[in-house]
Amino acid sequence: METPTTAQGTWLSAEEAGFLTAGPGRAAEAVLARLIDTGLVRVSRDGLVTAVHQTGHEATTSIEARMLGHARTAVRFDTIVQSTANSTEVADLYRHLFSRGLLQVPRRRSEARWFTLAVAGVLTVAGFVAPPFFAGVPIALCLFVLQYGRSPVTKAGKAALKHVTAHDRVHAVALHGFTGKVARQHVGELFELPQSVVKMIPPRSRKPRKRSTADGGGCGSASSSSSCGTTSSGCSSSSGSSCSGGSSCGGGGGGD
Amino acid sequence: MAGIKDLGVGIGWRSEIDLTVERLPGVDFVEVVAENLHIGHLPESVTLLLERGVPVLPHAVSLSLGSADQVDLHRVEHLGAVAEAVGAPMVSDHVCFVRAGGLDSGHLMPVPRTRDALDVLVANVKLAQRNLPVPLALENVAALLEWPDGELSEGQFLAELVERTDCWLLVDVANLYANARNIGTDPERFLDEIPLERLAYVHVAGGEQNGDIYHDTHAHAVLPEVLEVLDELCSRVAPPGVLLERDDNYPSDTEIAGELAAIRAVVNKHRG
Ligand SMILES: [Fe+2]
pTM to 2 decimals? Predict the structure, then answer.
């Protein structure tokens, strides 16, 4: 995959924007949104997704092709999102975004970070009494920075996301999910989907996570897979990504 | 019942395409497979269509009215209960048998066109009618074989069935086309022989030519030849309704809408 750019910066497809906004599940939701939008699949009231027969249209990405293949026989709305989120194709998307510098190895935010900051303050004050205490200040501050955590989405990723708008219903899903709202309208309604179908996506996943917001978004509210930002191994600075290495960013386990 | 009120153009409601059926423009009525519905638990989509005033007609596939065994009255009762639940003006099943000797064929098997078989059919139809709250229409089936020693043509057989039971006819033009291709039925003669004033409505469906055999699959597009049979029928009588049956490999909403429009065009051509 190449990295297209626009005058305003890096161009993101809906599935990429979905991934950067809320992780692999959202990427899968965006893909499903596009398949519905282009009439490649249909959804029934009981939440079954099926590929539309002989439309003459084809999938345009490997994730779409995977999802379309899965929908050759009827599959539940939530199941197809989850299985796609956990697929090797979405893991490839993660690696692609990582290689483009739009994702990075996240660090978990520690509840002890304010204590560490306070320690830095105490050491500073103590340093005026006994200067050797100053030596501990940069160590405490460094620890504070590490404990503060890091979003899986890089500055470049966030900058690229700024250019993405919910200008159509597929991008509305990428940015807000089927269960989200845009201009005070439920995104699911843009697809004329009953709420009973949209709500098949588990509540845990539908809730936007506070941590994700605090961390600057990314990988938080995906349907099945857990967030990038909450399960990585903290201060690891190795070159390999904790996500792609089998944790939570859709890279683990491959497809079903 | 003096006559069937104008139903228009409809489609077979199936759960897989429920939202499509709800959204499609120009769906004047729908048919539901009675065996798939549970009284007291009508699908939300069917309820919504009823609220919109769309007629819902129950269509049965399991009465097996051509069986030598007596009709299973539980099945008749269920069909009647579905009719009442959806406020249907009539119900339908097929001129066929699906069970014999305790075995279920899984297919709508044609009835031998003998006087004996007709007597059995008539007795079963009358029993079903006595236990149904609304009139019964019976549909011609697609046959891949003809029983030996037939004494009547298919049209004569149906005409006599109507005469003796006062049932209505549901003419499936795709089945008629299939029989023309596979067993040499003459569609024009069929249409000449049946009492068209007892026509309840018409089925149209898609199929596939496979070698010498035409398969009435309900999973392929409607062939122009099938629409020609509809055209022939419409040149003789204005059908109270025409319904598209699609049971598998559902195409896009646009394609389904296109097939409904093609059906409507044939019907309207003869209405001036
Ligand atoms: Fe039929």
Answer: 0.82
